[in-house]
Amino acid sequence: VQLQASGGGSVQPGGSLRLSCAASGFSLEGNVIGWFRQAPGKEREGVACVAKSDLYIRYDGSVKGRFTGSRDSAKNVVYLQMDSLKPEDTAVYYCATSCNQDYVTSWGQGTLVTVSS
To answer: Confidence band (pLDDT; 50, 70, 90) for 13?
Structure first.
Protein backbone atom coordinates (compact mmCIF):
# COMPACT_ATOMS: atom_id res chain seq x y z
CA VAL A 1 0.00 0.00 0.00
CA GLN A 2 1.31 3.39 -0.95
CA LEU A 3 0.48 6.25 1.39
CA GLN A 4 0.58 9.89 0.40
CA ALA A 5 2.03 12.58 2.60
CA SER A 6 0.96 16.18 2.10
CA GLY A 7 1.06 19.53 3.84
CA GLY A 8 4.69 20.45 3.35
CA GLY A 9 5.88 23.92 2.54
CA SER A 10 8.40 26.61 3.35
CA VAL A 11 8.57 28.08 6.82
CA GLN A 12 10.98 30.12 8.86
CA PRO A 13 12.87 28.62 11.78
CA GLY A 14 10.56 28.32 14.76
CA GLY A 15 7.53 27.91 12.55
CA SER A 16 5.03 25.07 12.38
CA LEU A 17 3.54 22.76 9.80
CA ARG A 18 1.09 19.91 9.96
CA LEU A 19 1.62 17.02 7.62
CA SER A 20 -1.12 14.63 6.64
CA CYS A 21 -0.87 11.00 5.63
CA ALA A 22 -3.73 9.50 3.67
CA ALA A 23 -4.57 6.55 1.50
CA SER A 24 -7.50 6.08 -0.82
CA GLY A 25 -9.27 2.77 -0.62
CA PHE A 26 -7.28 1.67 2.41
CA SER A 27 -8.10 2.11 6.07
CA LEU A 28 -5.31 3.44 8.23
CA GLU A 29 -7.23 2.33 11.29
CA GLY A 30 -5.48 -0.46 13.07
CA ASN A 31 -2.23 0.10 11.21
CA VAL A 32 1.07 1.28 12.52
CA ILE A 33 2.08 4.43 10.66
CA GLY A 34 5.68 5.45 10.34
CA TRP A 35 6.88 8.92 9.44
CA PHE A 36 10.21 9.20 7.70
CA ARG A 37 12.25 11.95 6.11
CA GLN A 38 15.10 12.26 3.69
CA ALA A 39 17.24 15.36 3.65
CA PRO A 40 19.26 16.30 0.56
CA GLY A 41 22.30 14.08 0.27
CA LYS A 42 21.33 11.99 3.26
CA GLU A 43 19.72 8.63 3.83
CA ARG A 44 16.08 8.32 4.76
CA GLU A 45 15.53 8.20 8.50
CA GLY A 46 12.66 7.44 10.83
CA VAL A 47 11.00 10.39 12.52
CA ALA A 48 7.98 9.06 14.38
CA CYS A 49 6.06 5.86 14.78
CA VAL A 50 2.33 6.05 15.49
CA ALA A 51 1.17 2.81 17.07
CA LYS A 52 -2.09 1.15 16.16
CA SER A 53 -3.95 2.36 19.19
CA ASP A 54 -2.20 5.74 19.46
CA LEU A 55 -1.43 4.83 23.04
CA TYR A 56 2.21 4.88 22.19
CA ILE A 57 4.03 7.09 19.72
CA ARG A 58 7.77 6.84 19.41
CA TYR A 59 9.85 9.77 18.21
CA ASP A 60 13.39 10.09 17.03
CA GLY A 61 15.47 12.00 19.57
CA SER A 62 16.02 14.87 17.16
CA VAL A 63 12.30 15.69 17.01
CA LYS A 64 11.10 14.62 20.43
CA GLY A 65 9.19 17.40 22.13
CA ARG A 66 8.67 19.25 18.85
CA PHE A 67 6.76 16.79 16.67
CA THR A 68 3.45 15.18 17.61
CA GLY A 69 1.75 12.32 15.83
CA SER A 70 -1.97 11.74 15.89
CA ARG A 71 -4.73 10.23 13.83
CA ASP A 72 -8.29 11.10 12.85
CA SER A 73 -10.04 7.82 12.23
CA ALA A 74 -13.17 9.49 10.91
CA LYS A 75 -11.15 11.16 8.16
CA ASN A 76 -8.78 8.20 7.71
CA VAL A 77 -5.81 10.50 8.14
CA VAL A 78 -2.71 10.42 10.30
CA TYR A 79 -1.06 13.70 11.16
CA LEU A 80 2.40 14.87 12.09
CA GLN A 81 2.32 18.23 13.82
CA MET A 82 5.73 19.84 13.57
CA ASP A 83 6.51 22.78 15.82
CA SER A 84 9.67 24.75 16.54
CA LEU A 85 11.01 23.76 13.17
CA LYS A 86 14.74 23.99 12.55
CA PRO A 87 16.72 24.25 9.32
CA GLU A 88 17.91 20.70 9.89
CA ASP A 89 14.31 19.53 9.62
CA THR A 90 14.42 20.39 5.92
CA ALA A 91 13.66 17.19 4.03
CA VAL A 92 11.11 15.30 2.02
CA TYR A 93 8.74 13.63 4.47
CA TYR A 94 7.06 10.30 3.84
CA CYS A 95 4.60 8.10 5.65
CA ALA A 96 4.24 4.34 5.42
CA THR A 97 2.43 1.42 7.04
CA SER A 98 5.56 0.35 8.88
CA CYS A 99 7.92 1.97 11.31
CA ASN A 100 10.82 0.05 9.84
CA GLN A 101 11.71 1.32 6.40
CA ASP A 102 13.26 -2.03 5.52
CA TYR A 103 9.72 -3.38 5.40
CA VAL A 104 8.32 -0.61 3.19
CA THR A 105 7.92 -1.95 -0.33
CA SER A 106 6.52 1.17 -1.99
CA TRP A 107 6.98 4.81 -1.14
CA GLY A 108 4.61 7.64 -2.00
CA GLN A 109 5.85 10.92 -3.45
CA GLY A 110 6.44 12.52 -0.11
CA THR A 111 6.05 16.17 0.77
CA LEU A 112 8.84 18.72 0.91
CA VAL A 113 9.43 20.70 4.07
CA THR A 114 11.86 23.60 3.82
CA VAL A 115 12.90 25.51 6.92
CA SER A 116 14.88 28.59 6.09
CA SER A 117 15.15 32.22 7.02
So the answer is: very high
